[in-house]
Design goal:
Helix content is about 30%, strand content about 25%. It contains 8 helices and 13 strands. Its cofactor is Zn(2+).
């Protein structure tokens, strides 16, 4: 028995990294019988019968987290790529992404692209939002088209981490991947002038070594829903609301109509931004209205 990490999945094979070498493996039939499937990012135990033959994955170790799109496990962080123009910066969409990542205990890093496309007035209007997210505790990277310094700025954030990219279509995820992994030469998605959306340019998932860490080689997902989040969990997914909630009088306070709610007090005092609180209320209602799953 040996242990390693799945770095690539392709055509029914799993490529397990062990001491710098990729071992081609198949999964045991028992996984299929249980409805389980090994994922890129999984740490596994495998056997190889004879030198040079395919290995067999015998066991999948417990995961810290997993995503469906892209199908990947044990992610430390996600770089959320959002453009400030074409498509325009959208706080409710950004908060939707942030909440889902927080729910999976995946650290978000916000990367704002295309800053060279906005006017001075638009930049002045954007700055308070950048300041807000930094104050909450998020790392915010500001970049522009053909930013030669981007890799050097992101590089320290990638070391010893497994990272994925996420964000709305057409915001520059493929461009960023090309910067971080030039060997990919991904085609950059062309914005549809009619729809304002980028065309899909995704591939199979592979974890590639870059800057002392691992990076998924696909831009991955472009939308999120709250299927796996319960109403009681939502507070935790807004860090500044979670901090204020410690001072709420009633345990389990949802910060809607309850008396002596520290969250509502902080919103009134301006310590929690109104738009963030409104997004919290909107997401809470979505979760409450969600149809039960059977």
């Amino acid at each position: 028995m040996a242990t390693g990490q799945i770095r690539k999945a392709l055509s029914g094979y799993y490529y397990v990294e062990k001491d710098g070498e990729l071992i081609q493996c198949r999964g045991r039939g028992i996984f299929r019988n249980r409805g389980e499937s090994p994922l890129v990012g999984d740490f596994v135990e495998y056997t190889v019968e004879t030198a040079g033959s395919d290995g067999t994955i015998q066991e999948i170790f417990p995961r810290d987290n997993e995503l469906v799109r892209p199908p990947i496990a044990n992610i430390d962080q996600a770089i959320l790529v959002f453009s400030v123009k074409e498509p325009n910066f959208n706080t409710i969409l950004l908060d939707r992404f942030l909440v889902v990542l927080e729910s999976f205990y995946i650290k978000p890093i916000i990367c704002l692209t295309k800053l060279d496309l906005i006017t001075d007035e638009e930049r002045v209007a954007l700055q308070p939002y950048i300041d807000d997210y930094k104050k909450i505790g998020y790392d915010v990277i500001e970049t522009y088209i053909d930013d030669a310094s981007l890799f050097e700025r992101i590089k320290p954030m990638l070391a010893n981490k497994t990272t994925v990219l996420a964000g709305q279509s057409g915001v520059g995820k493929s461009t960023l991947l090309n910067t971080l992994l030039p060997q990919l030469a991904l085609k950059t998605g062309i914005i549809s002038q009619h729809l304002g959306r980028g065309k899909h340019t995704t591939r199979h998932v592979e974890l590639m070594e870059v800057a002392g860490g691992l990076l998924a080689d696909t831009p991955g997902f472009s939308s999120f829903d709250f299927d796996t989040i319960e109403r009681e969990e939502l507070t935790r997914c807004f860090p500044e609301i979670a901090e204020a909630a410690e001072r709420c009088k009633f345990r389990g306070c949802l910060h809607v109509k309850e008396p002596k709610c520290a969250v509502k007090d902080d919103v009134e005092a301006g310590d929690i931004r109104t738009y963030r609180y409104e997004h919290y209320l909107q997401f809470l209602q979505e979760i409450i209205d969600r149809k039960p799953r059977y």
